[in-house]
Request: fold
Amino acid sequence: MQELGRLEDLPQDYRDDLKHLNLVPLWPSLRAVLPPKVPTRQTQPTCWAYQDIKPLLLKAGDLTPIEKAERRVLVLANPGHGLENMKASAAMYLGMQLLLPGEWAPSHRHTPNAVRMIVEGEGAYTTVGGEKCPMRRGDLILTPTGLWHEHGHDGTDPVVWLDVLDLPLVYYMEASYHINGERQTVVPGRGDQQYARGGVVPTSVFERSKKAYPMLRYAWTDAKAALESMAADNPAQETVQVTYINPETGGDAENILGFYALMLRPGQTLRLPARSPAQVFHIIEGQVQAHIVDSTFRMVEADTCCAPGYEAVTLKNLNAHQAAFVFIADESPLHRKLGVYENRG
Ligand code: GTQ
Reply:
């Protein structure tokens, strides 16, 4: 490939003239911004063990009252992006949030989209747009852009969940802000129950719901049952996976990040092809080994790892007798909308 001219090749007075006028020569940086064949990625394969996070999160519960935190979260930051930038990948933010019994994380709404994957504990709930969503292990709860949300806890033990937000992207776009609100009035109606059965949707006087986000809570019991029946129906099927969708449109549940649940059969090794979006893997049940570029992570329940885009990932169920279940978040909806989505096999 042709070597391009360097900045140092230019006379200092010419460089000074450019700088003074807020001008930059492209050619010294052309290869950096348009590298050959494969993008430069700061996202490093990184794994966070829940066993390491939990004691520090509980300690945060002692050190910082909820009033001083609003959201008591330890951010799972990818060192490749710089810890202070709080990115798991270019577009994804991950955080482990702790809510103690009796605590309340006050109502707010913001431009980034969020989801919560419940990791541990009973009795907490999130109220989203007036709908009170119970939080149980493995449930996925949406808090899409612009919807009021607050977290409460009527149980007896700490509750922990994984937050996945498109905050890095929205922040990069200079579009990230929040508004604080009053405690929401809970309105009757539970989208998770109305949309709990595939193939039928609520219809009032022949009108379908006009809500942008009709379903806010996806119970793990339902997603797991769907995966188990798929696996039983089709023993030869390699990828046993469901996508969390908007049941009115059939499209992705949220606009920017995609969410999936994957079942690995006992002892199964599954190679996921190299696709352009970065991915996050979180173990809901079982023991899984993830091979990502040069890293091999042995993961157990509640552990989380991330993979850069354009790389194949191999997942292996380490248990020869029981299925494993993995929650996946990725940047696919964003890549498809931008027209940069690729599957390189
Ligand atoms: O629970 O609303 O991890 O606003 C980061 C920002 C959680 C939340 C995060 C948030 C929240």
